[in-house]
Every structure is written in structure tokens, then in C-alpha cells.
Known about the structure:
Elements: E1 5-11, H1 16-22, E2 30-34, E3 37-43, H2 49-59, E4 65-72, E5 77-84, E6 87-94, H3 95-98
Antiparallel strand pairs: 1-3, 1-4, 2-3, 4-5, 5-6
Amino acid sequence: MRKGVKIFGTFNGISPQAFERLEPVLDFDEVSYADGTVLVEHDGEYDRVEDVVLRVMEAMAEGHESGLDIIDHDENTITRYAIEADGFRARQMDMDDVVAPYPHSQA
Length: 107
């Protein structure tokens, strides 16, 4: 069984200039940028999530939506952030309610 925390994010509508301003706060394990989209991935705890979400809001162009998922294997939860230029929503769900079990897994 997996342990720890895994973070995935896709930030859309980010200009090259906005990425330059945003990049210093993206201290994730992996960060890539291409064609207006930033992809992030991280293994382990991360205590600056809301700061990053607010900075992404500032960097995004109007009309775009971005997302950040935090999978906590220890707590069996996923926290999903939906980010728009004028605000964000965060929702925490039980992983069993979000992800179907593997066909041959034992419960």
C-alpha cells in the first residue's frame, strides 16, 4: 500500500512573463512549462498550497481554469483545488469515493 502525499497540478493560461513571476514559488519536485501550461508534481508534504493557489490565480489569464490535486495515501483522501482568476474552490473527498478499485484488488 502506498504511503505519504502526492501532488499533481495543471495551471493553464500562464504567459511566459507570468511564469517567470510564478516559478520561484513553485518549489515542487517537478515543474515544466510549455504553451501556456505549467505542470507540477511533488512527492511528500507541502505546507504552502494555498499560497501557490493564490499566486496561480494572479498569474492566470481570464477565462482559464487550473487544478491542483493532493492525494494523501495515509488518510486515504484527495483534496482537489479548482482555480480560476477570480477565486478557487477546495474540496476534500475520500479516495474510495473518487477512484474505482482495481478489478482484481482485494479489499
